[in-house]
Write a structure and sequence with these properties.
heterotrimer; A mainly alpha; B alpha/beta; C alpha/beta; A: two-stranded antiparallel ribbon; 2 strands; 74% helix; C: alpha/beta; eight-stranded mixed sheet; four-stranded antiparallel sheet; 12 strands; globular; disordered C terminus
Amino acid sequence: MLAYLLRRLFAAAVMLAVIILVVFSIFFLVPKWAGVDIATSFVGKQADPAAVEAVRTKLGLSDPIFIQVWHFFKGIFVGRTYAAGGDVTHCSAPCFGYSFRSEQAVWPVLTDRFPVTLGLALGAAVLWLVFGVAAGVLSALKRGSMWDRSAMVIALGGVSLPIYFTGLLSLAIFSYGLGWIDGKYVPLSQSVGGYLGGMILPWVTLAFLYAAMYARITRATMLEILGEDYIRTARAKGLKEQVVIGKHAMRSTMTPILTMLGMDLGALIGGAILTETTFSLPGLGQAVLTAIKNQDLPIILGVTLITSLAVLIANLVVDVLYAVIDPRVRLA
Amino acid sequence: MTELSKTGAAVGEPTSASPAPTSFLEVRDLKVHFPTDDGLVKSVDGLSFKLEKGKTLGIVGESGSGKSVTSLGIMGLHTAGQYGKRKAQISGEIWLDGTELLTADPDEVRKLRGRNMAMIFQDPLSALHPYYTIGQQIVEAYRIHHDVDKKTARRRAVEMLDRVGIPQPDKRVDSYPHEFSGGMRQRAMIAMSLVNNPELLIADEPTTALDVTVQAQILDLIRDLQKEFGSAVIIITHDLGVVAELADDILVMYGGRCVERGPAEKVFYEPRHPYTWGLLGSMPRLDREQQERLIPVKGSPPSLINVPSGCAFNPRCPYADIPKDNVTRTVRPELTEVGSQHWAACHMTQEQRERIWTEEIAPKL
Amino acid sequence: MSIPAQSEGPLVTKADAAPGDTLLKVTGLQKHFPIKKGLLQRQVGAVHAVDGIDFEVKAGETLGVVGESGCGKSTMGRLITRLLEPTGGKVEFEGKDITHLGVSGMRPLRRDVQMIFQDPYSSLNPRHTIGTIVGAPFRLQGVEPEGGIKKEVQRLLSVVGLNPEHYNRYPHEFSGGQRQRIGIARALALNPKLVVADEPVSALDVSIQAQVVNLLDDLQQELGLTYVIIAHDLSVVRHVSDRIAVMYLGKIVELADRESLYRAPMHPYTKALMSAVPIPDPRRKNAKSERILLKGDVPSPISPPSGCRFHTRCWKATEICKTTEPILVELRTGQQVACHHPENFEDQAPQDTVLLTVAKEAAELVADEVLAESAETSAAVAAEVAEASSEAAAVSDETSDSTGSTEAEAGAQESTDGQN
């Protein structure tokens, strides 16, 4: 078990290093080859050549590529110092550079926005797991019934309706129409009630989409598991049906659900762009959207790395849970 | 009542509404039908038999003869797994030690499962939950029916594993099914089914998935355990060799019905149904001189949705034209007594069958 | 081009190989499947599925191959039909070396060597009609039989006892036995010389098994086919075979004609295997004394036991069995055996009498362990054996003659030296 964990951790670390390398190359080398000068774009189009040159020296853009990569790595793990003549700026670890537009350090921008996205993703995940899995199990047990059919029709709707439709619809009804919910984002540190009030619609909207997918996969998996020989064995032992379903069948059903959860959570943490935009949540998705519009490379780079890290961590957690659930995985 | 018992005597089979039997297990006119899109599948269609403690009944038949469904019916597992509308239809009577199982409260039947009646399945790898250790699964089986703490139950599990011949049981109790070999898994499965000392053990093709040398070990084990625990055993198989090794009585099923039933010796040496002859003739035998040719049964087993009218075996039976008036294709033959404790369902007369067997079939085997 | 023999009504034997000539010759055949692990996919071991076997198949005969699961019999079948490429050794078909022929090199041979598979449900494409399935070999080989493919396919269907009218039906409309007949019709399409059948009847019901066995029998007589029939069922193999090879853990332990093998098996494993078959005769029910009950399971083919591979389960095993691998030699006419202490014959190593009881117990325990631990097995057994042999007072000279490199042997030899 420990060996399995260490192997997974090592693989994740290697993966992360590779991701940093690839992302760095895309964002710093591709513009160079494409003939776009980063220093110029940093200063602005009508900048005087001396200022551009100063920026170039300060950012180390004229250094050989491997030196640049090394500085970038170093910046992330121990911090780095930008210097051009007397102009010295120290950027402490983890340093992702400075925004081209606001000239703010990237890291604080990320740490500001990360909790919003994380809160959105985790809150929605809890909702969709509870409702999606429950609906799926019930549908499986009452296969062919009215409940099963209507649940699956609703699920089909959930899967096919885009977030900006359901999101705007819920905003129109509950916020503008009925006026039940204010709908403005309030940080959790300021007011718990305000936070919940601001998050409830995004959570429900996002969870609706995912719950639909989870209900379908749970139903299909559960039906398959119920046909397994070991479920018959569990009944032959004289176990109550609740235990047969709740313990023996559920444990097997969890495996594919966990796999999906790992990928979905990772992707959502990288930015639920649609949801955040629809509900004006100041999360990573919004940040990256703005950065793309402004060609703000350091921000895009930072968000991309955070996203990759989130996916890696989520998958690592899933792998560990996998091994906890399925003993056969531990051998692999 | 008198009339009922009269018919009962005539066919040697007590019919419904008769009083609780004296036998340990008695099945009367059991029918298990499954509704499907294509029609009603009559998996078991009127089956009756008795079994005493300490005895072994072998149920023999080909795939789709209804032998496995019979065992699920006795265990009450035919409906437990069915959700939604398409539930199995079951009728008849199953008396286990004075309790009628089909009319009993389902929760009462559940409590009997695993404690009074237990089951071993064909493929021990798929029949054991892959995510729980052997020990956890045996402990669970024990604690459903015994109010003991986990430690005591674990001791019992180790004891059972030791009894079924698993080396280092105190260590292997914490292994997962995938860490066991096929033979060891079946031993563990047997340990699990016997953990509550059941009075009835149903083994559904217990050795079909195993190699022949391991099969010999498992058959040996089942025989020894039965002697030790004195339980009634039903062994379901397609292999006449396996029933000959274990069974006291043999029941041959075809198309959801019993075509012949009797003591093992009688069924092997004086079979009175053409299907039984077919089974015996189809098998190459190691214990005899080399046969020139096997004597197969022509055609294939019937679909249980569309069982042939009359005798279900008539399209495959070489002697279907011997009885007069096309009776084999119109009238279902009932089981009639052909010897002491020996019944067969065939329209041919006793004499005709005896002659065919002794003159035509037996010499070729 | 057309093959005249096929379009004729009566079936005629292909004349190239006279009965009795060697059709297939296998020498030192090996197949190891590598086990890879870790990021770099380092090879950490190999499954010794087939580990050096020799045999010949003569034209017109049936060679039966029996053994338990994991003995390598199916791999062997796929090697001789070249569905797999051997790791070592040589396969010769009609004198031609086909061991390492590529796909195109094998194409002409595919006509002469055909295979019938175990599972009639998964070996037929459910989306193709029977006509397409049985006619596929003609299209693949570019052969145009006289009268057209359709006519020829219908003739083949009637040969295997199916209704030629069913040409346009799909596999799911047929029962298991009928599907196996379709598989046989497909195998026969190009009038092959050698048919390799891997468990042809084990998925079928008893009454259907006999039909297919009889069909194979008839076809052999009519078409002069040569069969290699692989099966686990000893009674079926005896019924269909002229000669029988018994395999255990990748090796042939006994190869003999049917009568000798079943009358007087020489290898203890053959004897145990035969005695384990349940006899359909209730009067023999209590004849338990005749049965040899092997203990434990077949050891892992990843690290097969040293010396004779059967020694861990053999009741006759002595020290030499642990150290020296017995060679397959012809002890009686037509009966080859690989054993130091054969049954029904004089002992090949009579001096060697120290029984490996302790080693056997140990091996049995370890044999069941999980695969991951199997690498340590030999060491563990070796240690036990070393102890066992030092305790044993007399170790014969035979031991020191044997070649080997395990610690156990070193230990054993040391103790012998001490005694001497």
